[in-house]
Amino acid sequence: MNAMNQPPSRALFVVGTDTGVGKTVVSMLLLRELFARGEQPFYAKPMQTGCTSPYDTDSDAAFVYRHVPELAGRDPAEAVGWCFAAPKAPLHAARDEMRGVETEDLVRSLACLRSEHASLVLEGAGGLMVPFTPEALCIDCIRAADARPVLVARAGLGTVNHTLLSVEALVRRGMEPAGIVFVHTKERSASPDLVRDNMEAVAMLSGFPVSGVVPPIENLLHPPDAAFAPLRRMLDVLDGVVMPG
């Protein structure tokens, strides 16, 4: 809380080092943590591909709305800007349906979301350099939304390269990650020593510490406390409650 005992105004854009790294799970955990802190965050998925509607099984918005108790009963369609069936980059998925998205419309929708919601969690599609329109990549949407990027990466082998390249892309565009979050899943298990080495390498070579590691979650309706720890630390750093590092 700030000096006036009001929740801070913030926009966070959850982006990945690659596709399938855990952005939607991190978005869900982040929303739940923000609600627990007294905020009223709005979730938005500007571009959704790989599903025919916001209600499909593969819809990220539907997943988030199912697993955030405060969103129960609300319509996940309110969170989705554009939805395309093909599981590919939004630019090409839209082209397949002959429904090209104008860059101006995308930028306008992001600016509107930022102006209408004091607490906003946006989720990207794929990695940072995925094309959303002929002129705009996913990374360009972060600035259009006046948001801070939350970089999500795998915890195991290969993440150092992917994470450092993603941080470099952000920094070259004048942005710094609000936090770097590793996600550890049962399908991509990694030894504790490897995860620790990866965290050390990313922090040393990028200059930005990893906020923590989200462990495998058995019950997504009831995540363990450890799953929230990286998001809590990131938010505490952003709010000046603890020092980074």
UniProtKB/TrEMBL annotation:
Pathway recorded for this protein: Cofactor biosynthesis; biotin biosynthesis; biotin from 7,8-diaminononanoate: step 1/2
Keyword Metal-binding: yes
Keywords: ATP-binding, Biotin biosynthesis, Cytoplasm, Ligase, Magnesium, Metal-binding, Nucleotide-binding
Highest taxon in the source lineage: Bacteria
Required co-factors: Mg(2+)
Residues that, per the record, bind Mg(2+): T24, D60, E123
Gene3D superfamilies with a match to the protein in the record: P-loop containing nucleotide triphosphate hydrolases
EC number: 6.3.3.3
Subcellular location: Cytoplasm
Subunit structure and binding partners: Homodimer.
Main function: Catalyzes a mechanistically unusual reaction, the ATP-dependent insertion of CO2 between the N7 and N8 nitrogen atoms of 7,8-diaminopelargonic acid (DAPA, also called 7,8-diammoniononanoate) to form a ureido ring.
Family listed: Belongs to the dethiobiotin synthetase family.
Protein name: ATP-dependent dethiobiotin synthetase BioD
Organism of this sequence: Nitratidesulfovibrio liaohensis
